[in-house]
């Protein structure tokens, strides 16, 4: 809800100021995220050792690389945004350009907010993982969200940019780099989770036959409960996505800032099956 543009509450002449404010706020959030990760790294070295220290360092290093990639992405996006305004406003002022293209401006603001929010959430999830109070899955989901937000920011910038723009090419390259670094966070998180789980594997060698049978039955009950819960959560996720798409709307922005409904997907042409060969 916070990421949705508050266009009804904001005068059009204020949109330009808000773009600059949000881009600056996103940069500040990323800088703060980098500092927090460095602090977590120092804390991890003081409070953990062995396998846990190795896992924490690998995860935090991958998070640092991702933050650096996002920082470069936001910087390049800011440069491209200035280029778009300068080449498209003509005799109009910057504020008038943003007001004339208010829907595009709101999309840019929303995308910038999403990137900054994703970076903040990633750091908070990493902090909880290092302190052993969070879940590794949170880091994976945050990485996916950052990749999606990056694609949104590139798409919002690409609408108004010249195809031959060097800043656009740099932005697309930065986007690929962010996706690669996000994938590294996912990989390091999964491998670290496997290492920790292997280390904490229970030893059943000292259990009696009755004790083993009891543990086996209890585990079977948990498996059934988790499977049922997983099915329910998948249904809930599907409904949430439907509501998200309904609120976001299925519109494609045109070059002049207007919108048009997205074309319906074509159905595949049904081909006749080949005739059987006669013997």
TrEMBL record:
Q: Which InterPro entries match?
A: I/LWEQ_dom_sf, ILWEQ_dom, Sla2_fam
Q: What is one term from the GO cellular component aspect held by the record?
A: clathrin-coated vesicle
GO function terms (MF aspect) = actin filament binding; clathrin adaptor activity; clathrin light chain binding; phosphatidylinositol-3,4-bisphosphate binding; phosphatidylinositol-3,5-bisphosphate binding
Q: From the UniProt record, give one GO term of the biological process aspect.
A: endocytosis
What protein name is recorded for this chain? Answer: HIP1R protein
Q: Which organism is it from?
A: Eubucco bourcierii
Per its UniProt record, what Gene3D superfamilies does this chain match?
Answer: I/LWEQ domain
Name its cellular compartments: Cytoplasm
Q: Which UniProt keywords apply?
A: Coiled coil, Cytoplasm
Region listing for Disordered, in residue ranges: 251-279
Ranges for domain I/LWEQ come to 7-248
Q: Which residues form a coiled coil?
A: 207-243
SUPFAM superfamilies attached here?
I/LWEQ domain
């Amino acid at each position: 809800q916070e990421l949705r543009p508050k266009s009804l509450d904001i005068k059009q002449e204020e949109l330009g100021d808000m773009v600059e404010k949000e881009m600056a706020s996103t940069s500040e959030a990323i800088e703060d995220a980098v500092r927090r990760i460095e602090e977590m790294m120092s804390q991890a070295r003081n409070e953990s050792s062995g396998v846990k220290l190795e896992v924490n360092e690998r995860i935090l290093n991958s998070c640092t690389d991702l933050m650096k990639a996002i920082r470069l992405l936001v910087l390049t996006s800011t440069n491209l945004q200035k280029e778009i305004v300068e080449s498209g406003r003509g005799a109009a002022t910057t504020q008038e350009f943003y007001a004339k293209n208010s829907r595009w401006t709101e999309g840019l603001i929303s995308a910038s907010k999403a990137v900054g929010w994703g970076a903040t959430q990633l750091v908070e999830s990493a902090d909880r993982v290092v302190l052993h109070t969070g879940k590794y899955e949170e880091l994976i989901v945050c990485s996916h969200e950052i990749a999606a937000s990056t694609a949104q920011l590139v798409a919002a910038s690409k609408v108004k940019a010249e195809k031959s723009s060097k800043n656009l090419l740099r932005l697309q390259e930065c986007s690929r780099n962010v996706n690669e670094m996000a994938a590294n966070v996912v990989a390091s998180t999964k491998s670290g989770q496997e290492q920790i789980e292997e280390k904490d594997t229970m030893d059943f060698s000292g259990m009696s036959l009755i004790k083993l049978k009891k543990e086996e039955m209890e585990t079977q009950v948990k498996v059934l409960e988790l499977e049922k819960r997983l099915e329910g959560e998948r249904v809930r996720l599907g409904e949430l996505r439907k509501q998200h798409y309904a609120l976001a709307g299925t519109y494609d922005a045109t070059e002049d800032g207007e919108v048009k409904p997205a074309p319906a997907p074509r159905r595949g042409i049904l081909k006749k099956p080949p005739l059987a060969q006669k013997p």
